[in-house]
Design goal:
This protein is α/β, with parallel strands linked by helices. The chain contains nine helices and 14 strands. The structure holds ribose-5-phosphate (R5P).
């Protein structure tokens, strides 16, 4: 087995290699003057079981292209099997046509990865489980919920905790955490009563006096999160903490979170944290390296991956 990384998340790739007790494979990903990407694999991969770690995070298109070109380089170097390890799968939110004459870009990206020559995909907390079916190659979608559960247990008194989904679409994810913690579940229901009027946040469930844990897959602008936190506090919650797998945190999102009433935002390292994230007083990053490392190990040994979540 050999593990290689593109430029998107080398810290996570190194942590995965530490877990696996393997050196990170030697490959360079460079740019020509016109920004074309050039990849060079600097060690033999003939007949190897190759894992390429690359999140398609900001700058999304560059990181996606790096991944495609790395897959191509491995294929042409006679790797036996190539697994694209994509801790954060960008374009996942474009998983259906929101209107006429719009693309389904998540499917297009899945096609590109397959066509480039990947034999398998290993990813984490896909925005929608169905995206697994966009790939016609074996695709394992890992869940961060065991890591989040462990962290919550280490930091919170469970007797007063209430798990909250920040929107109706995230209920299944929130329920999975509530079940593991044996806690109650509440839902923030965003509704725009009339076109042109601002959204009303209704909280379904009694959060009075509760330490609320908002759970979601993505925090991008931070809007969904901060609005839900406001609504919970207005409804009598004692505190609001958020557990979110993918810290996309675009534009002014970090500033929005740091100036919000959120006690803490806990994200994973599926996207490499920027220095702004690292120095934010209320953002903490937990690692997925052992989860992804163990999934890689089991894939390579042809063992069950799903039993990681039993
Ligand atoms: C939406 O379906 C996702 O689960 C997230 O709630 C959303 O992407 C968060 O985006 P933002 O932080 O920009 O509100």
């Amino acid at each position: 087995m050999k593990v290689f990384a593109g430029n998107s998340n080398r810290l996570l790739a190194e942590a995965i290699c530490n877990y696996l007790n393997l050196p990170l494979g030697r490959a360079t990903v460079r740019r020509f003057a016109d920004q074309e990407i050039f990849v060079e694999v600097q060690e033999n991969v003939r007949g190897e079981d190759v894992f390429l770690v690359q999140s398609t995070s900001f700058p999304t298109n560059d990181h996606l292209m790096e991944l495609l070109i790395m897959i191509d380089a491995m294929r042409r170097s006679s790797a036996r099997r190539i697994t694209a390890v994509i801790p954060y799968f960008g374009y996942a939110r474009q998983d259906r046509k929101p209107g006429p004459r719009t693309p389904i870009s998540a499917k297009l990206v899945a096609n590109l990865i397959t066509e480039a020559g990947a034999d398998r995909v290993l990813t984490l907390d896909l925005h929608a489980g169905q995206i697994q079916g966009f790939f016609d190659i074996p695709t394992d979608n890992l869940y961060s919920v065991p890591i989040l559960t462990r962290d919550v247990k280490e930091h919170y008194a469970l007797s007063n905790v209430m798990v909250v989904s920040p929107d109706v679409g995230g209920v299944v994810r929130a329920r999975a955490l509530a079940k593991r913690l044996d806690c109650q579940l509440a839902i923030v229901d965003k509704r725009r009563e009339r076109a042109g009027e601002s959204e009303v946040m209704n909280v379904i469930g009694d959060v009075t006096g509760k330490d609320c844990l908002l759970i979601d897959d993505i925090v991008d602008s931070g809007g969904t999160l901060c609005n839900a936190a406001e609504a919970l506090l207005k409804n009598g919650a004692t505190s609001v903490t958020a557990y979110i797998t993918h810290g996309v945190l675009s534009g002014g999102a970090v500033a929005r979170v740091t100036s919000s009433k959120l006690k803490e935002l806990v994200i994973t390292d599926s996207i490499q944290p920027t220095t702004a994230v690292q120095s934010a007083h209320n953002i903490r990053v937990i690692s997925t390296a052992s989860l992804i490392g163990e999934a890689i190990n089991r894939t390579s040994q042809e063992e069950s991956v799903s039993s990681l979540f039993d």
